[in-house]
Amino acid sequence: MAEFRKIATVADLPPEGEAKEFECEGRTVCVVNANGKYSAMDNVCPHRGGPLGQGVVDGDKLICPWHGWSFNVRTGESVQRPSTAIPMYGLKIDGDDVLIEIKQKE
């Protein structure tokens, strides 16, 4: 079962072309604003554990600040290794609240 949890307010979201880190239930989530559309993904790069929320947004890609691996911000798929992907979270805005979808363990 999945539930949505508040991670921020709309005012906290990153400006267009940037990413930002948010904490939610013991995990760090990266929210990206690419071309005016927000997406949320795990903050840990699978290559070497770099903090994706501190990376650079280039069009529809997020580039890890440690070693330059790139990820599609809509699918989480790695440009360097398409079989590797970042876990994505559903994101919605409800009034002034920004919510992400957290899958609960059964």
Structural descriptors:
10 strands; Rieske Iron-sulfur Protein; 0% helix; 106 residues; four-stranded antiparallel sheet
Overall structural class, as computed from helix and strand content, comes to mainly beta
Count of separate DSSP helical elements: 0
The overall pLDDT, averaged over residues, is 93
The CATH H-level superfamily is Rieske [2Fe-2S] iron-sulphur domain
Q: What ranges have pLDDT less than 50 throughout 5 or more consecutive residues?
A: none
Order of helices and strands: EEEEEEEEEE
The proportion of residues in beta strands is over 45%
What general form does the structure show?
A: globular
Radius of gyration: 13 Å
- Count of individual domains: 1
Oligomeric assembly: single chain
CATH class: Mainly Beta
CATH architecture: 3-layer Sandwich
- The termini sit apart by 7 Å
- Kindly report the CATH topology: Rieske Iron-sulfur Protein
Give the beta-strand count.
10
